[in-house]
Each structure stands twice: as C-alpha cells, then as structure tokens.
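Practice problem 4.
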C-alpha cells in the first residue's frame, strides 16, 4: 500500500514540472496567478459543498428518532480509511506542486527583462532607469517586454504592490529585493505601498505607465535632451512629488504643519524662543535637516530630504511665489 502511494506521489510531482520545463514560451504571470486562484477556489468550494451536503444529509437521515436506543458500535473500515487518506493526500500534493510551479515562475526573472530600480521613501517612490533617467512616483515601461523591478528603501519598511500585475514585494532598507511583471497591454496602472509606514503612507502611490515601444523611446529622448523645466516648475513638481503637501498646504489653513503660504521672509518663532527670518538658507536647512530647528507649536514630525542643491534651489524658488 505504502509503495503504491509513494509511486502515485512521485508521478504527480513529476508531471507538472515536466510540462512547464525551461524554454517554454513566456506565460503571462497574471494568467498563472488567476488560474491558480480559480483552481484553488474550485477545489475547496467543491470539497466544502460535498462535506456540507453530507453533514446535512446524515444528520437528517440518521438522527435519533423517538423510542430508539443507542446505535450499533462499528469499528473501522480499511477501504474507507484508505480512500479518505489517499484522496486528500493526492489533492494536497497536486496543489502543492501547482503552487511551486507558479512560485518558481514568479521568482525566475526572464532573461531579456527591462530593469528598473525603485526606491521607496517616506512617502513616495524614486525610479531610476538603466539609461540614467530618473522619475518620482512614475514608472514608465515599454509594452510587451517583461520588467524586473529592483527594490529597496531609503528609510523604513515599505511594500511595493501592483494589483493589476498581481505582484507584491517588500522594500527593505539596506537590501535589494526584486520582482518582475509582464506588461502585455498598454495603459496606466497604479502601484501602492502596502506596509503602513507613517502618516503619509496613503500618499505612496506611483503611476505605472505602459507605453508603445516607440512612444517610450521618444519619451526617453525628450527626458535626455533635458526637456529642462524652469526652477519654478521643477520646484512645484518636487513639492507635489515628494509629498510635502501631505502635511503642508499652500492655502493658509491651520494644520499640523506650518502653511507654505507667505512662508518666504516670514518671521518664524522657534521652539527655543528665537525668532528667525525664513530666508533661502533657513528653508534649505530645514528641508535637509528638519530637526535642527523646530517651529514653535509644532511637533518634529517632518522627515529629512536628501535633495541636491539644484533641487533645493528649485523648491525655495517655488516657495517664494506663494
Ligand atoms: C510629515 C509631515 C511633513 C512633511 C511630509 C513635510 N513637512 Fe515640512 N514641516 C512639518 C512640520 C510639523 C513642521 C514644523 C515643525 C518643524 O519645524 O519641524 C515643518 C516645517 C517646515 C518648514 C519651516 C516652516 C516655517 O514656518 O518656518 C519648511 C520650510 C518645510 N517644513 C518645508 C517642507 C518641504 C519643502 C517639504 C517637502 C520636501 C516638507 N516640509 C515636508 C511637517 C512636514
Ligand atoms: Cu510606504
């Protein structure tokens, strides 16, 4: 009996692995995951329905009726026991092998994948392309070519999740993890952070833009030419992209962070009682090292931003217009 079971298990283990051997055409992982999910759902729903139906049927048919004594004592039934051990065993081995196949597909990055580096930070995503280009909260990729995402984090744990491509992976400071997806259709998708990482967590959205190859190349060309934004526009974009507006506002309302409205040249009273004029160097300093000075009446909740001088200049140029 044991040897028969072992043999059956071996065959079951081998069959699917052979079917999906290396060199097979690239499958769409979205389809594999969906099929896998549907298969699980079908099997467990069928089992559930079968067991539930039996429970109901048996409890009606064999319920104790008036005037009946104890039931007969039945001991064991080898055939039944073998069946109810072997059938679930086969099902579980089958599901295990299928799971392994999908998992293996997801951890094996196709060789010709386009590679982008994505770094999570509080609160957004820095994207670096192999050609040296950079974007924030925007991942552009050509359609029809697998994409490998090398993930890391600048500060705390984040998690990178694109529901449309059924992928999710941890972004860990000091370590690089990776994940891949296959964008088979043009369009705009959304990437989320799915690991609570502080007050701006819900702002951590990135657009995944899948473009026609030629459009993608045109876009890259334009970016390279330096399609240079004026410092003012660049500053405006940085303030939006970096999530400053998750805490600050430009309308003058009173919130948990000082408003940006009229900030430049304002007399700021600090927690230590000093009064400073919010000039360029004060603002620059506060962005790079927010803990160095604290505005009176506010908590030290602002994270530091490691920006280049040029970026700082763009930000202060924009702040001065508010
Ligand atoms: C998590 C919320 C948060 C985010 C995000 C944030 N800040 Fe702040 N910021 C604060 C708080 C709170 C203060 C006041 C306390 C302090 O001085 O640290 C402040 C103070 C400031 C000040 C000094 C204001 C004054 O009136 O003197 C400047 C300038 C500033 N932030 C710029 C920025 C810029 C630029 C960004 C985006 C790159 C940003 N902040 C992102 C919370 C935030
Ligand atoms: Cu996050």
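Answer key:
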């Amino acid at each position: 009996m044991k040897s028969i079971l072992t043999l059956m298990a071996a065959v079951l283990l081998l069959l699917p692995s052979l079917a999906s051997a290396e060199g097979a055409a690239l499958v769409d992982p979205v389809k594999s995951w969906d099929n896998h999910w549907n298969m699980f759902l079908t099997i467990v729903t069928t089992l559930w329905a079968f067991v539930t139906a039996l429970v109901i049927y048996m409890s009606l048919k064999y319920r104790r009726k008036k005037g009946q004594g104890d039931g007969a004592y039945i001991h064991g039934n080898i055939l039944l026991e073998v069946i109810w051990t072997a059938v679930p065993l086969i099902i579980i081995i089958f599901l295990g092998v299928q799971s392994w196949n999908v998992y293996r597909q997801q951890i094996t990055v196709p060789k010709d994948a386009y590679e982008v580096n994505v770094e999570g930070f509080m609160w957004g995503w820095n994207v670096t392309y192999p050609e040296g280009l950079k974007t924030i909260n925007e991942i552009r990729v050509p359609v029809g070519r697998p994409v490998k995402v090398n993930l890391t984090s600048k500060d705390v744990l984040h998690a990178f999740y694109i529901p449309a491509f059924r992928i999710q992976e941890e972004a860990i400071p000091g370590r690089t993890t990776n994940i891949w997806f296959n964008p088979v259709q043009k369009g705009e998708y959304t990437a989320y952070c799915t690991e609570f990482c502080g007050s701006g967590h819900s702002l951590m959205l990135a657009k995944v833009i899948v473009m026609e190859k030629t459009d993608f190349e045109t876009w890259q060309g334009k970016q390279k030419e330096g399609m240079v934004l004026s410092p003012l526009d660049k500053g405006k974009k940085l303030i939006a992209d970096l999530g400053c507006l998750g805490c600050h506002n430009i309308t003058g309302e009173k919130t948990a962070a000082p408003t940006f409205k009229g900030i430049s040249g304002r007399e700021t009273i600090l927690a230590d009682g000093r009064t400073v004029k919010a000039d360029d160097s004060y603002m620059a300093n506060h962005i790079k090292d927010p803990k160095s000075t604290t505005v009176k009446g506010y908590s030290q909740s602002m994270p530091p931003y490691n920006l280049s001088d040029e970026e700082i200049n763009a930000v202060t140029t924009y702040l001065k217009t508010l």
